Amino acid sequence: MSRSNFLTSPKQWPFFYGWMILIVGAIGLLMSAPGQTIGVSAFTDSLIDVLALSRDELSLAYMGGTMISAVMLTKAGKFYDRFGAMKTGLIACAGLGLALMYLSQVDEIADLLGPSKLRTACLLLFGFVCIRFFGQGVLTLTCRTMIVKWFERRRGLAVGILGIVSAYGFSMAPVGFDFLIRSFDWSRAWIVLAMIVGLIFPIFVLFFFKDEPENYDLVPDRILSKKAAKKINKFPVYKEFTLSETRRNYSFWVLCGFPAMFGLFMTGFTFHVVSLFAEQGLARSNAIQIFQPIAIVSIASTIICSLISDHVKIKYLAYYFGTAFLLAIIGVIYLSEDGFFYWLLIIAYGAATGVGTMFASLFLPRFFGRTHLGSITGQAMTLFVFSSAIGPILFSQSLSITGNYNVASYVCGGIVLALLIATIFTRNPQAEV
């Protein structure tokens, strides 16, 4: 065996390789930042200036790109199940890198084709479809699915660590992207990111993106072999569900509803946060500063949930998620400066964010197994991403029609309350096998 194969073979590092998968997967998740909303936001003002588009036109192109990318994610998940983490990860990196290169030259392409707002918007729409699909979609799906396949009894801990790393990394991404823009310009900043994502990180994908541990005579949680897996799993998987079987399962849609609705509410709230605070007579500084304490609460919530998630039923986490979500909505509706509802919003929103970052990664493999996890996760992400695209429009229409954001908040709150009631009747399908 060559030295390189020795260093990258799970069979040679059975007590270490699961955590290596977690580390490289977490880095891969951070590589998706240019395709995430928080990453694109650093470039929006530059795009508005050079493309002569209004903010509404840019937002519509971004929403369209997000929705189109969402409907393709189930197919991407099926591709993962068939071809594995390495091939899917390499394609995701290459696609995201090429998409960033394209967007770095989108103004030149628009000038070459001639002045037309519609044509320019379509060019931008195509770029958004690509970075959302390969970045937020395929690369995220690949990293998360690969990681949860290497952990079972410690899955909550692993996903919790991933959530903390990604939360901190994504919160720092705009700062890093802004530094690149100021050091070079918006176009060259995207070129630098394209080189990192499309040329450098694929080296790690090639060596360290591995599929199921069973392929190497291992089982999850760093165990040497199946014979060594004597400790009983509290939530054993008896049946590997297919995508079609999963789609027919009541619990799948109810539990997916929580992160889908939270994504909708979160994007709507974040997109209009300054205006929302202004409607309550609060300053812009109050709106911007609220995310720092929310992040602190979110990390604490993630740590707590990761420690208990491997020992409790998923529906209890769903109750926690939904209750925190409802309290956050109440905080938004009755928001006031430094008052009770201001701090209720911070604590509840942070608590919901903490469990929301790990919720789907926990319940999907526990309920439906790991064999078809790529396609099942792709179906779930289709719902999550599509819902997130609706949030900003729901909130803006609420303001336009009623003069405030309360109607949007009431709609979200009503759906979450219905999901909480529906959760009472959910069951782990493995218990019915």
How would you describe this protein?
This protein has 433 residues and is mainly α. The protein has two domains: 3-222, Growth Hormone, Chain: A; 243-426, Growth Hormone, Chain: A, CATH 1.20.1250.20. It is 76% helix and 0% strand. Helix 6 (73-104) packs across helix 8 and helix 15 (291-308) crosses helix 17. The longest helix is centred in the N-terminal third of the chain and has 33 residues, at 117-149. The radius of gyration is 22 Å and the shape is globular. The mean pLDDT is 86.
Q: Which short descriptors sum up this protein?
A:
globular; 2 domains; mainly alpha; 433 residues
The string of secondary-structure elements, in order, is HHHHHHHHHHHHHHHHHHHH
Overall body shape:
globular
Q: Span from first to last CA?
A: 43 Å
Strand content: under 5%
Architecture (CATH level 2) name of the largest domain: Up-down Bundle
Number of helices: 20
Main sheet record: none
Count the beta strands: 0
User: Which structural class do you get from the secondary structure elements?
Assistant: mainly alpha
Overall pLDDT confidence? 86
Number of domains: 2
> CATH top level of the largest domain?
Mainly Alpha
Helix content: over 70%
CATH superfamily of the largest domain: MFS general substrate transporter like domains
Low-confidence stretches: none
Q: Which fold does the CATH topology of the largest domain refer to?
A: Growth Hormone, Chain: A
**CA gyration radius, whole angstroms:** 22 Å
